[in-house]
Amino acid sequence: MAFGMSRKHQDDQEFGSDSFLDVLANLVGILIILIVVVGVKVAKMPPSEWKMDAPAAASAPPSPPKELPPVPAFGPLPEIRPTEEMLRQAELLKRNYEQMQAQLQTLQTDEQRLASMRKDHEVELASLRQQMTAKVELLRDEKTQVSTLEMDVAHLRNQVTTLQQQAENTKPDEAPVEKLTHQLPPIGRVVTGDEVHFRLQNNRVSHVPVMDLAKEVQQDIHRRKDVLLNRSFYQGTTRPVDGYLMEYVLQRQGMSLNDEMRYGRGVIRIGVSGWVIKPVGPVMAEVSEEALQPGSGFLTALNRHGPTATVTFWVYPDSFDIHHKLKEYTHEAGFWVASRPLPTGVPIAGSPQGSRSVAQ
């Protein structure tokens, strides 16, 4: 019963409010219509003459506005309690929000991981570019070396052709070239120990510091070991020693089974595949009379190595006379002697695949 009375009272309030609004709207509409009608009439009136004979009478004060009926007061709004559907929707929205937060956290983590991977890939790419640049430089060096070797081969071929032409054009009345005759003693041995080298050219003798130049090569290898680790082929030149320098070629060599067992598989062996000795500038050379005098360069080199060393003479065709005298002296002094004839224009050279000197 109480519920029915409250409902009726609420309906009465709503009805009263609606009626008041309708009345107010009608009044506003009537006022607008009146204003329009008055405006039209004023526009159609003819102009009149105003006379200032007497002051205009004071207009009557406007009547006070008619009081409007009081607006009825509205009661308190009814309390809205959430329904089960609204609670279910709110819970669903909360779960969706939490899921979106978790997905956002996952995306942020993935973004950081991808950024780290990108940085690592950039570092790896930079390293690969450096390696590629190093390989390109290596290929360029090897190409340059191949071109240099091809030029050397072409130059040697031209020299051979020139020598052949000179030999063909040699006149019969020219003095015959003295030939080196080998008189083998009863005993000979392959040189394996200390060896002292002499170059015989223009009937003069000069000491060739082969062992000192070999030490220079070893020092070059030690200084350039970082470069040699990245190359399979290297061509270098030592500094001059006593008027001679050595041009050498280094190559990476394979490891034997014994070497791998001894040093491991990570070790790289680099060896000299060939060398050439050339004079640089003026070389101190002595004729036979000067060479056999006390204090000469020839005797000084012999005494420094001792009688157990083997003497190797590199003999050009124009120096057989001095070779005969020096060989006879060294034999009498108790040295083992090995002689290596050289064609004109060919430098002193050697390689691991070459033959060893045979001393007599």
Automatic annotation (TrEMBL):
It comes from the Bacteria. Residues 61-75 have a biased composition (Pro residues). Keywords: Coiled coil, Membrane, Transmembrane, Transmembrane helix. The chain crosses the membrane at residues 20-43. Residues 52-78 are annotated as: Disordered. Residues 83-166 form a coiled coil. This is Uncharacterized protein. It comes from Planctomicrobium piriforme.
